[in-house]
Amino acid sequence: MVWCELLKQERSRDRGEEMANRQEKTATGRVLHDPVKDKLRPMFPIDLSKCRTIDELVRAMGNTAFTGRQIGDAADVLEAMARDKDCFVVMTLSGALTVAKMGFIFCDLIESGLVKAVVSTGALMAHGLVEATGHSHFRYDPSKMDDKTLFEAGYNRVYDSLEPEVNLDHVEEVMDDVLSNWDAEEVACSWKIHRKIGETLHKQGAGRGILKSAYEHNVPVFVPAFSDSELGIDFALQKIARQREKKPLLRFDPFEDFEKFADTMLATKRMGLFTVGGGVPRNWSQQFGVYAELLARRGYRKIPLKRYNYGVRICPEPVHWGGLSGSTYTEAVSWGKFVPPEEGGKFAEVFDDATVALPLVAGAVLDRIGYFKREK
């Protein structure tokens, strides 16, 4: 039976070669193929009259070219993550995305059940906390104030937007409440602190915010570079206050975060990564694959390779600068961080401003999985 099957395959291959040989050569020796017979995927112009939803628009963009196609492909891969019931999706965030008013999109991704863990910069969480406590950010008008005047007026500029200093004072009040009631016997780390902040917001009935949504849906929020943030500064100031009052000092151990994240990921069947931006959150999350391989190779644990099966990133950083933020997923395959495409890995990369691409990609996928039709 095996021999017969091989004979059939050989005859089929011979017929294909015979058909190719029968094609007429052009004067320059080229044999022009039929794209339909070669099973190439056709492209189509966007017909806006047929695009009534974000999903319809993004699907149409996927049949075009350049960044539009990247957005369509990213939505398809993120949808595959969402529909894979065995996939644990980690969302990594960097940049001033909460100041840029992307915060509710992150809430939707958490509340929909798509995102199971968040790894972020600390600043993004701090600015999101501003929003959750009912305060606002403002547009910057360079014709009214220069940066020196902004400093004197207490307006912190984030490119084209302003974060009033008084907002961060309100953030400090929340942090002070959390840390003042912290049991000094319990070692602190970023995911524990963010969970406490989310619990506080939940009890206060605050508005929507990433940390509140994360607490309500049991999604841990990790900030690997915690000291590089407003919340980290507040933790440092709390230490000074405790020293003055001769209270026990709080201990912060970043490896509590590392071990919590590693244990969580080791328990998964499949893993997906949705990255907005790059930087420390992206690398810290991806290095789990390296850690798992070393656990096995150096004899600490008997475990199979643990690599991300899916990856979607939105980041305009080009690859040729050599930094991690711009590195491709195929490069990460060489480090053992992702499953190669030939073994089933699915990746999509969008080289675009997140304030443009994120609402389209996330909105399309949330529409596809029926999130907007659910009762809130």
Polypeptide structure, described:
This protein is of the alpha/beta class and 376 residues long. It has 2 domains: 43-86 and 269-376, no CATH class; 121-261, 3-Layer(aba) Sandwich (Deoxyhypusine Synthase). It has 15 helices and 9 strands. The chain has helices at 2-22, 54-61, 66-83, 103-111, 122-132, 147-153, 165-180, 190-204, 210-216, 230-244, 254-266, 279-286, 288-297, 329-333, 354-368, and strands at 87-93, 117-120, 138-139, 155-158, 161-164, 221-222, 270-276, 310-314, 346-350. The strands form 2 sheets. The protein has a 6-stranded parallel sheet with strand order 6-2-1-7-8-9, with helices on both faces. β1, α4 and β2 form a beta-alpha-beta unit. α2 (54-61) packs across α3 (66-83). The radius of gyration is 25 Å and the shape is globular. The chain starts with a helix and ends in an 8-residue tail after the last helix.
